[in-house]
């Protein structure tokens, strides 16, 4: 497999919904319908990680309620949100989901836990596509499921997201409740909408395509930002995920302080074709409120990597130690 496969940044909440709030609240609060179909997952009660139950209003309907809101941003309980991202702009095989992250949002504790699953993690696939039977790399199953699905782009993206969610449940006993999927033909276009971002790079390195990133504080243009989060070198998956987390923190600060809020309606319309989610506009507003309030030291990032969780396989594949991964996920998702 080509180590220069492009990778979309884990935008999750702070990239798009993190800029929502303030003046647009009164506009979008009236819209409570999901923007796409919900996930349909098998019942695997014996495998499900025991997480705190979501309260009745944790579906974020409180965003439009006239009653006094409870909890943070009018919500209580927790939400498990699957973020899936793909960037096909480089066209390097194998295509698929470059970013798979399962995010637990705890409204009561004002805490967010983000777990990254490597695209090359080998799982027991359950997708309908013939190629998605037996063992398959997690990210690649997304691509094959899209190919096997009829309909428009939204239907294909939903199918790919659906198979990722099903595999996480059946292999590792974690169950997404909602999803937010981004599929781009040009990652730079999205970064251009946000503008330049300042980062503090801990170690100098040269990317897959020969771009030199010095150590220390520097400003990333949209083009440099895309290369920063895509590159597999140095340190392949571990390094790539660490760089994405670093950029994500800087991006959160930028979108919450750069006066982007008035541009939100135009941004949503501009990127509608690449966004597929079962969240409603009012839910996005409530999550944005949460992102604005949660402190950086209460956003925890974890990765399914390391000798305790995976074993290196052929052609950069990662073979899971399934029981250990389940224990690890149970531990990190417990609210501190």
List keywords for this structure.
about 325 residues; globular; two-stranded antiparallel ribbon; Nucleotidyltransferase, domain 5; alpha+beta; disordered N terminus
Could you describe the 3D structure shown?
The chain has 336 residues and is of the alpha+beta class. The chain has a single domain (20-186, 261-333), classed as 2-Layer Sandwich (Nucleotidyltransferase, domain 5). Helix content is 32%, strand content 21%. The chain is built from ten helices and 14 strands. The protein has helices at 12-15, 25-28, 138-147, 153-172, 187-194, 222-230, 236-255, 264-270, 281-293, 322-333; strands at residues 78-87, 99-106, 111-117, 122-126, 133-137, 178-184, 197-201, 205-206, 212-213, 216-220, 275-277, 299-303, 310-312, 318-320. The chain has a six-stranded mixed β-sheet with strand order 11-6-1-2-3-12, sandwiched between helices. The protein has a two-stranded antiparallel sheet with strand order 4-5. Strands 7-10 form a two-stranded antiparallel ribbon. The radius of gyration is 19 Å and the shape is globular. Mean pLDDT is 77; it is low at 1-30 and 44-69.
